Amino acid sequence: MHIMEGFLPIRHAIGWSAVSAPFVAYGLYTINKRVKEYPEQRMLLGVAAAFTFVLSALKMPSVTGSCSHPTGTGLGAIMFGPAAMAPIGMVVLLFQAILLAHGGLTTLGANIFSMAIVGPFAAAAIYRTAQAVRLPFGVAIFLAASLANLLTYVTTSAQLAFAFPDPSGGFAVSFAKFAGVFAITQIPLAISEGLLTVVVMNALVRFNARELQEMKVTVVQEVQA
Amino acid sequence: MKRYQNLLMLIAVALLVALPLRMVNKPAPGADGKQVQIFAGTDDKAKDLVGNIAPGYKPWAKPLMEPPSGEIGSLLFALQAALGAGFIGYYLGVSTTRAKMRREAVKTVQC
Fold it and tell me: What domains sit in chain A, N to C, each tagged with a CATH number?
């Protein structure tokens, strides 16, 4: 989902940066507030960030014959709320833009929007909905994380189509082309991300039941001695 | 079933990664004799697609630094993954120990 350095026209680059900036600022505010209120959650915040670090570094092969990577933003969005993932995603994207020539500074705003804003907000919304209709915990986490991953890549396709509409068919044709590159490749990876998120979440629930109840991730069940 | 859930999920992920490697065959080299690349990154494919849709578009910025070779690139990606995985491993270690100590503390109180 990385739009490469310089591959968005200047106006789009500035526009997406302006859209993403308030989310990052608000995210920093929520993180600060939470760490002050619940200092013991700092480590879990680190886990959420670390998970994004790992997953976005793993480029996996897909059935289409190209490689892509998961985003890892669903886990943190479910635990800390979607806004918290905006600054965390930004750190990951900055690391890759500066050191790896993967993504870029001019496209940072657009990439933050797809990976660290749309993905996390989708994850949180899907998770809450799944809980409301009483889907099992694992299924809810899986759906949230995998659909968030997929939607991130749909967003990237839309951003590119918006910047480069097809000369004859306009936005729709161009979107179909970019989605053809991104979205289909992404389906198996989205499933992988969903499964990995459930595995990590299972471990966290087992050892950090109390914190996760405080964070309203899990509903209060039996109290462990 | 519940007990093996995590293991089964990890196996599924491994299969999802491994199967495409078997399923996708490398196409024969094109007429110009160039090898067709498979399993290239989608980000680069999107870059090529921009070139197709808007042939006149010139990227107006260049990355500050490019990894001098593919190896250095992998090194940095491996570093990124290692940092993340290291922290998660450390935290899980801390939590398992903490959970164990809590259980033992409860036991001593009960005795």
Answer: 10-214 (1.10.1760.20)
